[in-house]
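re the bet — no i am not wrong, look at it urself. input seq straight from the record:
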Amino acid sequence: MDISHAVWLAIVQGFTEFLPISSSGHLVLAPHVLNWPDQGLAFDVAVHLGTLLAVVWFFRSELVAMTTAWFRSVAGGKGTADSRMAWAVIWGTVPVAIAGFFVAG
C-alpha cells in the first residue's frame, strides 16, 4: 500500500469513527470508490487501535479517576460517582462480551 493511501485512510477513520455509521465500512468503501487495492485486515485493526489509543489518551484523567475509585470501592471504600461509573461500564460490558463470545464461536 502506498503511504498516501495509508494517510488518507487514517484520516477517513479519524473523521468517521464517532459518526453513528460504520467507520469500518468507510475503510472498505474508500479504497473501492478510489480504485485502490484492499489494505487488509491488519491495517484496519491498526487504525482502529490508533483511534482507541487517542480516546484513551484524551480521557486519561477520567479513566484514572474511575479506575482508582473502582479499586477503592472493591476494597470496601465509599462509593463515589467515579466508582459507580466504573461499575456501570463493567456491567454494561459483560452482556456484550458474552454475546460476542457466542456469536464469534
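see?? The first helix runs from residue 3 to 16. told u. also Residues 60-104 form one domain. so pay up
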